[in-house]
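check this one:
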Amino acid sequence: MGSVRAGAALCSGDAMGQFCLLDSAALRTARRGSPRVLPGMPLTPVPHSSYTLSDFDFALPPELIAQHPAAERSASRLLDGTHDAPIDRVFRELPGLLQAGDLLIFNDTKVIKARLLGSKATGGAVEALVERVWTGNEVWAHLRASKSPRPGAAVHFNAADGARFSAEVLGRCGPDDALFHLRFPCDPLALLDRFGHVPLPPYITHADSADDERRYQTVFAQRPGAVAAPTAALHFDEAVLRALSEQGVSTAQVTLHVGAGTFQPVRSENLAEHKMHSEWFEVSAATVDAVTATRARGGRVIAVGTTTLRALESAAVSGRLDAGARETSIFITPGFEFRVVDLLLTNFHLPKSTLMMLVSAFAGYEHIRALYAHAIAQHYRFFSYGDAMLLRRSA
């Protein structure tokens, strides 16, 4: 058995106000090559442990990589890892595992159709993955082409019906100049919705379909900006949300726009040498108040997904949970001091990934190894369209 390791009407009007976009001041800062940190972001160092990259490797049979979602969102499996021994459950059982007074926090980001297909003026094929949408109709994007386009060049993107639009290449940008700075002719989000494809992860091998457009999105997605789904939240449907409310479980939201960097591999055995990608997030004052009220009544804070956890813990690195919007490149490895989250609902992650390190830090390295071994033996489905597990903070 093998295994793996690691149009005019479209451009009219001003739709920008309804979206959570990064403003021109932040863009000017980023253009100058300054660190991508917005005002108010704490710069507290993140501790790293003596673990190495190889400690987070495991062999996964390829057939366990889910290529399609479960027929029903809440019919996926749930591995209950809150006890010493794993317990096999179904996701719709989640409300019964929580208590009245608990607080469940979701990431309300919305996946944009960030993948574009087209050509350069010379005719060569181009594929783009939009990473950031800025004001002024400008975006940062990954570009794949036989030869990189130069500043001032035009790139043409196509729709299945033959329509096209052209974007101007402004130059290179982002960390290590790995991205391209493009100017679109009008609202990028409207153009992406018209011309774009669902940015399925690289381990999903089929082309995106109408079903992916519906299912690679949470039922409570509100704020466009993510190029990958907060996958732990894909299991929720209206029935589960209603049962949670009847159980006395409160809910709140954060926003973290998941970037393509979530799929970037860690290349150094020394974890301290790894540089995390940066992502924009916001924790509202209402969510801070909800956490405070939960603590006061003795309830627990449950993060739905690692993106929610990263937002909450990034907002609390100063020692208290602060409301606001900023960037985070937080790297969570064993030894990290968690300040907010008590339980974590998450999917199963890639070998040697930063998310394997995060869950190991949260629930304990040996406990995670045992849970993953159980999940593989019991043929759980892995990664974005796969099953979920519930974890308790180890310390």
Remarks:
- The mean pLDDT is 89.
- The domain at 114-197 is CATH 2.40.10 (Thrombin, subunit H).
- The longest helix spans residues 365-377.
- The chain has two domains: 53-111+211-392, 114-197.
